[in-house]
Amino acid sequence: MEESGRSKNQTTPLMFKLIDIYIIKRFLLTFVFILALIMSIAIIFDVSEQIDDFISRNAPLEGILIDYYLNFILFYGNLFSPLLTFLAVIFFTAQLANRTEIVAILSSGVSFRRFMWPYFVSATILAGVSFVLNNYIVPEANKKRIAFESTYVHPYRRSMNHGIHKQLKPGEYIYFDKFNSKNNVGYQFTLEKWEGIDLKSKLFANYVKWDTTDSKWVLENYYIRTYSENREHVVEGKRLDTTLAFTPDEFVGRIEDIQRMDVNELDDYIAEQTLKGSSNVPYYLVEKHSRNALPFSTYILTVIGVAMSSRKVRGGIGAHIAAGLALAVTYILAMKVTTVYATNAGLEPLVAVWIPNILYGILAAYLYIKAPK
């Protein structure tokens, strides 16, 4: 009897280890399966949309497969990995529930908290991979993908060209009403120089154009006002060739180009654009904070997924998947709404990015408490 008791005590930890390995293996395999399925569908739709551009612009097959679609999978697969993890958890756990395997596991004396352990291990693996991809690998992949897109898919660069405000250095500011990136021409240009609260000089020109030969700016219909000791001095003219501390490249580009920067490059770029007073800084901060918030959401969505699908319900796996998809849609909607508030309504980007995680973290805690024990 004693030997039998010792044998039972020795096999119980082994049984738990086997359960852990079983759950981790099924979790990760289900995630890979769903990722492959979703990415295959996405590629099919993308090919049908881009095939005419590939043919008309003679895109090389190697570039299509490697530079574009391989990096396409890295970017979009990583972008939606928390939601794909959520669907994997729902699908796999609902199968366990329908086969009453969860009932058997909990009835054997395993607590629900202990049952969650292999899920957290799997979520940690996926979140860690996502973090590294977000901050280091995907930006490198995006360089090739975006370069391919710019050459063969939509060969243009969208200019951020309306109401441009920039700080060149402390106390020195420029303004364009509009900048035409195609011709390197600006309209209603102003350059102001300040010392504290005192305006020292102001340059205004109706029209400015970049001279590519001499790397200078050509100002037309300009005037320069300087202020010294309560006196004003005005210089006017029809044309002025001059050098200024900026080039047209600073007004050309796509906000999406920050996707090509790793975490260190992005931090440096944000510091530079903040100094210059760029109006696009909120977009850059949203991108920066999202790279950390999205991997963390893997944990939250994993808890929600297990709590939702661990109970056997009428409708089986289909009901669990339908409920999971509905919840995933609301999560995406919450991310979009808070991002819009950050970029257009002045909401702090860090707060905006983490609000969905906070709200769904509360939901995860509630569902965990209510989950069958």
Written account of the structure:
This protein has 373 residues and is α+β, with helices and mostly antiparallel strands. The chain folds into two domains: 241 residues, no CATH class; 90 residues, no CATH class. Helices cover 63% and strands 18% of the residues. It has a six-stranded antiparallel beta sheet. A hairpin with a 4-residue loop joins strand 2 and strand 3. Helix 1 crosses helix 2, helix 1 packs parallel to helix 5 and helix 3 runs parallel beside helix 7. The two termini are 31 Å apart. The N terminus is likely disordered.
Secondary structure blueprint with pairings:
Layout: H1 2-56, H2 61-79, H3 81-98, H4 101-107, H5 112-153, E1 162-169, E2 172-180, E3 185-195, E4 198-211, E5 216-228, E6 231-242, H6 263-275, H7 281-309, H8 316-344, H9 349-370
Antiparallel strand pairs: 1-2, 2-3, 3-4, 4-5, 5-6
Helix pairs in contact: 1-2, 1-3, 1-5, 2-5, 3-5, 3-7, 3-8, 5-7, 6-7, 7-8, 7-9, 8-9
Biggest sheet, in brief? 6 strands, antiparallel
Strand content: 15-25%
Strands ordered across the widest β-sheet: 1-2-3-4-5-6
- Average pLDDT figure: 84
**Number of beta strands:** 6
- The SS-based structural class is alpha+beta
Describe this protein with a few key phrases.
single chain; 373 residues; alpha+beta; 2 domains; elongated
